[in-house]
Design goal:
7-stranded mixed β-sheet, alpha/beta
């Protein structure tokens, strides 16, 4: 299996102040993935962490961490994190964000932007937030405009 998300982070939409720690947690998580920093990733997630990849695969804690071994490190595009939506429920929180990144285009073509929604479940234990799960869903690109229709007779 391939890592579902290995991207650098650029927050493009400021989060409300009360939501900032949870959005920051997601940012640190994405940045740790980009850096293939297994130790940091392990520190940010729960022992029972699981995620659903954009392809629908379910990866548990150890499988997931295995993706970020130093020998698997590869270059990754910068990611823009935007549209945060945070809902906090005592010691649990849902964080939904839009992640966008540019991929190289075909020869002689500009880069293309790819986006996905990512949903994170965070839990607080001992005053510290950790990510318990993530779910990634690709966002379909907008449909091309319809061709012009000839005038009706």
């Amino acid at each position: 299996m391939m890592p579902c998300l290995t991207l650098a982070l650029l927050l493009t939409t400021p989060a409300p102040q009360a939501d900032a720690p949870l959005v920051e947690l997601v940012g640190k998580f994405v940045e740790a993935e980009r850096a293939y920093d297994q130790e940091k990733i392990a520190d940010l997630v729960t022992q029972d962490y699981a995620e659903v990849s954009p392809l629908g695969d379910v990866d548990t804690h150890d499988e997931f961490l295995g993706f970020y071994a130093a020998d698997k490190k590869r270059p990754v595009p910068v990611t823009r994190l935007s549209d945060p939506l945070v809902r906090e429920y005592r010691d649990a929180a849902s964080i939904i964000v839009r992640l966008s990144f540019d991929l190289p285009g075909a020869p002689a073509q500009p880069p293309r932007t790819v986006s996905m929604r990512a949903s994170f479940l965070a839990v607080r234990a001992g005053g510290t937030w950790k990510i318990a799960s993530a779910h990634y869903t690709p966002i379909r690109p907008p449909a091309p405009p319809a061709p012009p229709q000839p005038p009706a007779p």
